[in-house]
Design brief:
Length: about 500
């Protein structure tokens, strides 16, 4: 492989030095994961979807789960339901909350570990770029929503893990037969976990095309065959289909449209709505605007009142995107000759996932759905940041130092605030969820779905969960009036 740009005259780290920086990177990543885990375990389940999932796992047998979750209208997610069912059955009686929260922490930790491994921290400059990169990973709005989605098993986080796992397999220094087998199994699980699981296949193909050979051509073919099997089962055998236009409310322009409004506006030409969603998903990852299909920042501008959090989001994302675009621009000529180094592979991987993830979002916009693209945005920005730091070391003149320091200062401050916002929104979600459980008996329509009346222990399960959650010490998420406008309420 050719050296990274700006690295030609850089000293090559010794193996010992490389291991030191790598261990420091894992230690820092573990610190970030544990800090977030503290707030994650103190965030109760939502009383609507999350409780229903647990009650379904209690009521249905494993065979029932497999049979019914293959034929749910417009979705086919048997792996998600089977995972929840198996873990529910394995959990000690009365310890379901602790069991599934432990799974949440494990998912978060594994995501961060695989993410750090993919960056290959080996030098002081690599490590210097890491804190900002992790702030981008946890601070981007797509990851924020992923953390709050929860469910007994966070299937959105599971998709992130599957994507990172296959990319790390493809990035292995040597090729092993079990890499192919494991990649195929991960693909199978991801496809039937959630619709965005198809991005695991995109990662495998993109990595192979850029020259990564940890997964061989046999692994690529196997994963492609599994994808074809999934598509045949979904669209030809079971005719499950996908979300249709008007099935969900969705953002458009400056407002949220309900299902009737969407059908009235786009019923005769649904492709216009689909195209709008694809473009908005793409823009949202790159610029944090729009959000869920709604052009919030633009609307604030027209009103003449831009809250600080919105300005921070758009500014930090725009600067990051400009850095990524500049990094890509310097490589375009080599790309046209298909002369690629490892960093080129990471950038192309991001572009491939961004395009595919945006396309998958065509039925309706939901920020958590584009979380894989948001994660690989952080990877691409790491490449751009490291290259920027390497160029600064090569030319330490004052003008260049100022030209680099100013955007990095703005970028660091903005993404640090966005990372802190994740903690604030998790605290607020914990407070709201706990209060919802406290008044559960007044919300019979939500806490008594049909599943609860069909199992003799359903009352006990709900009662145990309620007692544990209501007695959980959850701090009130009060903020000062002067700082309230700095935290993204969405």
């Amino acid at each position: 492989m050719s050296p990274h740009p700006g690295e030609a005259n850089a000293p090559v780290p010794s193996p010992v030095e490389g291991r030191v920086w790598l261990r420091a990177a894992y230690a820092y990543g573990a610190l970030v994961a544990l800090a977030l885990a503290y707030f994650l375990v103190r965030m109760p389940y939502q009383i609507s979807d999350d409780l229903e999932h647990l009650l379904i796992a209690q009521y249905q047998t494993l065979a029932d789960v497999i049979r019914t979750r293959f034929i749910t209208v417009e979705s086919m997610r048997p792996a998600m339901w089977v995972t929840q069912k198996v873990l529910f059955d394995l959990a000690p009686a009365g310890r379901y909350f602790e069991t599934f929260k432990a799974i949440h922490v494990a998912e978060l930790t594994l995501t961060v570990v695989l993410f750090v491994r993919l960056l290959r921290i080996r030098t002081a400059i690599d490590f210097t770029a890491l804190p900002l990169t992790l702030a981008v990973l946890v601070g981007i709005h797509t990851f924020n929503v992923t953390m709050r989605e929860g469910y007994p098993v966070n299937h959105f986080m599971s998709v992130l893990i599957c994507c990172l796992a296959v990319v790390n397999l493809a990035d292995a220094q040597s090729q092993r037969w079990w890499h192919d087998a494991l990649a195929a199994l991960i693909s199978l699980y991801a496809f039937f976990m959630f619709e965005t699981g198809a991005l695991a296949w995109v990662c495998i193909v993109a990595a192979y095309m850029t020259g990564w050979r940890g997964i061989s051509s046999r692994g690529v073919v196997a994963s492609t065959a599994i994808l074809a099997f999934y598509l045949i089962v979904r669209f030809m055998v079971l005719d499950v289909g996908t979300r249709t236009i008007g099935a969900n409310a969705s953002g458009y322009g400056f407002h949220t449209l309900d299902t009737g409004q969407i059908l009235a506006m786009f019923g005769d030409a649904p492709w216009k709505f689909y195209l709008y969603n694809i473009v908005c998903a793409w823009l949202s990852v790159l610029f944090s605007e729009p959000r869920g299909g709604i052009f919030q920042f633009t609307h604030f501008v027209t009103l003449g009142a831009i809250p600080p959090w919105s300005l921070i989001n758009v500014t930090s994302s725009t600067i990051g995107t400009v850095l990524i675009a500049a990094c890509i621009g310097r490589r375009i000529r080599r790309w046209m000759r298909w002369n690629l180094d490892r960093d080129d592979g990471l950038l192309l991987l991001f572009l491939g996932v961004l395009a595919a993830n945006s396309a998958i979002s065509y039925p309706y916009l939901k920020e958590v759905v584009v979380s894989p693209a948001g994660m690989f945005y952080a990877v691409a920005l790491y490449v751009a940041l490291r290259e920027l730091l390497q160029r600064a070391r090569a030319d330490a003149s004052m003008p260049r130092a100022i030209a680099i320091a100013v955007p990095l200062l703005i970028l660091s401050a903005g993404w640090t605030l966005r990372a802190a916002n994740l903690v604030e929104t998790m605290r607020e979600s914990a407070f709201v969820n706990r209060n919802d459980w406290a008044v559960a008996e007044e919300r019979e329509d939500e806490v008594r779905p049909k599943w609860r009346t069909r199992h003799p222990d359903a009352e006990r399960l709900v009662g145990d969960l309620k007692r544990e959650i209501v007695n959980m010490p959850v701090p009130q998420p009060y903020t000062l009036r002067a700082t309230r406008g700095w935290f993204d309420p969405y």
